[in-house]
Amino acid sequence: MSLTEVKQQLVDCIRMLEQSDIIDYNGHCSDPHQHRLVPA
């Protein structure tokens, strides 16, 4: 797999996460259940 293909897969994954309201366009995570994704 070429670097270009890997980059395109990453872009596709980010777009899917954004469309699912898991991340916003800035890459911030949202947790609809109000649980922390990373311990404080």
Q: What does the secondary structure layout of this molecule look like, with pairings?
A:
Layout: H1 3-19
Summary, kept brief:
This protein is elongated. It is built from 1 helix and no strands. It starts with a helix and ends in a 21-residue tail after the last helix.
Describe the overall structure.
The protein is an all-alpha fold and 40 residues long. It has one domain. Helix content is 42%, strand content 0%. It has one helix and no strands. The protein is elongated. The protein starts with a helix and ends in a 21-residue tail after the last helix.
**Count of discrete domains:** 1
Biggest sheet: strands, sense, closure? none
Tell me the strand percentage band: under 5%
H/E series: H
Q: Note the quaternary state here.
A: single chain
> How many helices?
1
Give the overall shape, derived from the CA principal axes. Answer: elongated
**Residue windows where pLDDT falls under 50 for at least 5 positions:** none
- Rg over CA atoms, rounded to whole Å, is 13 Å
Helix content: 40-55%
Mean pLDDT: 77
**Computed structural class:** mainly alpha
Distinctive features:
mainly alpha; 42% helix; elongated; 1 helix; 40 residues
